[in-house]
Amino acid sequence: MTDQAGPRPINPMLKSALEFGPLLAFFAAYLALKDRIFTIGGTEYEGFIVVTAGFIPVFLIATGLLWKLTRHLSRMQLVTAVLIVIFGGLSVWLNDDRFFKMKPTLIYLLFGTALGIGLLRGESWLRAVMEGLMPLKQEGWMILTRRVMLMFFGLAVLNEVIWRTMSTETWVYFKTFGLTAAVFAFFMTQSSLFKTYAIEDEAEADKPAE
């Protein structure tokens, strides 16, 4: 879902609000409703399930607005949206929070596997997603892709450990802040790689990889 002319520029604050707003709204709603039980159609639902049911349309609306404004959604955003609908829907339909808690695991496994397949083909599929943000030499992209792949697998394992061994509230905090902080911290630790393999010459940046 990409406009032929490329993504349309929008206000960075608005873009961040559309990307992270639904997650923060989920967190706030969970804190407000976590101890409540709702009876709907004769079935009792915990606050977490009700908040999950509300999160799905909010997320889809925000994603739709992001596409309308930019005419662009990355493959990662599309996959995330599909999995949120599937696993969030299963949690609500079956009244079982485990499906929604498993969603990050599936997302990170899919992304990690996709990057691994690209590496086996001698390609950096991460480059297609992030090249506009950080121009690197091909060797740098391959190293970064391997590291990001391992990060995704590590986060998948970590999510499984958290939701299976700790409380729902702990998982919500982890999902809202822990995963984002972990990704941010990871890229902060890659500063030496960015310096070593950065492309400073514009002509070199446009040169296709051999």
Automatic annotation (TrEMBL):
Tell me where in or outside the cell this protein is found. Answer: Cell inner membrane
Q: Can you list the GO cellular component terms from the UniProt entry?
A: plasma membrane
Annotated keywords = Cell inner membrane, Cell membrane, Membrane, Transmembrane, Transmembrane helix
State whether keyword Chloroplast applies. Answer: no
Q: Which residues cross the membrane?
A: 12-33, 45-66, 78-94, 106-126, 147-166, 172-189
Give the family, as the similarity comment puts it.
Belongs to the YciB family.
Protein's name in the database: Inner membrane-spanning protein YciB
Per the UniProt entry, what species is this protein from, by scientific name? Answer: Sagittula stellata (strain ATCC 700073 / DSM 11524 / E-37)
